[in-house]
């Protein structure tokens, strides 16, 4: 839910929910508290509420940014040795998507843990985006600079240099700013699965491996190719 473009979200919602199956809603950390200040979170909050109202047997996983959000960052490093963005400056508790799936599997078999409950889940370690870029570049056997752009600069670069529509490009800064919001790490993954969340190194390795395949489709994460519109500032 949290990482779909408007077109992809509409397609995902086109299919009816199976009434006999529980619903695990994948949402975003902060959807309950920061939606008024971030349009991305406002969109996620609306989708979360709509899904919850449509199915009585559900629970909500409000997730930290996931390793899949790093795939396009890895693509920038691999292709340009540079990452441009307007991420906030907080420390990110990157979450492995495999941990989300493992937790969903547990919740699907334990009705008492669903019952409309909301869970906030994060990864094991929190680091800044600049540190993440350094570690990801190292995993790729490369070096990369991280340059901070103003939201308007990023939108302009996405439209002019990448060719994205304005509707999609406008979503990217809000998504990146959400990624950089600082959140404390949560013990929920370890409590539910009996083991700690996958380490940051696993998230980095997953993202690094993703550049071996075809380039990802445009989405609200970091752009996969950007020409430098201006000189930025390293964070």
From TrEMBL:
InterPro entries listed in its UniProt record: Ergot_Alk_Oxidoreductase (IPR051604), NAD(P)-bd_dom_sf (IPR036291)
Top-level taxon of origin: Bacteria
Region (Disordered): 211-235
PANTHER family per the UniProt record, alphabetical: PRESTALK A DIFFERENTIATION PROTEIN A (PTHR43162:SF1), PTHR43162
Name recorded for this polypeptide: Uncharacterized protein
UniProt organism field: Streptomyces nigrescens
């Amino acid at each position: 839910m949290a990482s779909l473009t408007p077109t992809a979200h509409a397609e995902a919602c086109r299919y009816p929910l199976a009434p006999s199956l529980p619903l695990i809603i994948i949402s975003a950390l902060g959807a309950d508290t920061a939606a008024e200040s971030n349009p991305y979170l406002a969109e996620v909050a609306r989708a979360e509420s709509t899904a919850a109202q449509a199915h009585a047997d559900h629970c909500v996983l409000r997730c930290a940014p996931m390793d899949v959000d790093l795939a396009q960052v890895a693509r920038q490093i691999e292709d340009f040795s540079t990452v441009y963005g307007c991420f906030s400056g907080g420390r990110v508790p990157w979450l492995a998507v495999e941990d989300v799936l493992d937790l969903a599997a547990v919740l699907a078999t334990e009705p008492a843990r669903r019952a409309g409950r909301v869970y906030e889940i994060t990864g094991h370690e929190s680091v800044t985006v600049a540190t993440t870029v350094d570690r990801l570049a190292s995993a790729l056997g490369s070096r990369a600079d991280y340059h901070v752009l103003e939201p308007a600069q990023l939108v302009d670069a996405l439209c002019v240099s990448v060719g994205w529509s304005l509707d999609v490009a406008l979503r990217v800064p809000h998504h990146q700013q959400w990624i950089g919001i600082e959140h404390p790490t949560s013990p929920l993954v370890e409590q539910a699965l009996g083991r700690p969340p996958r380490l940051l190194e696993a998230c980095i390795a997953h993202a690094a491996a993703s550049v071996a395949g075809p380039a990802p489709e445009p989405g609200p994460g970091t752009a996969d190719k950007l020409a430098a519109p201006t000189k930025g500032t390293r964070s």
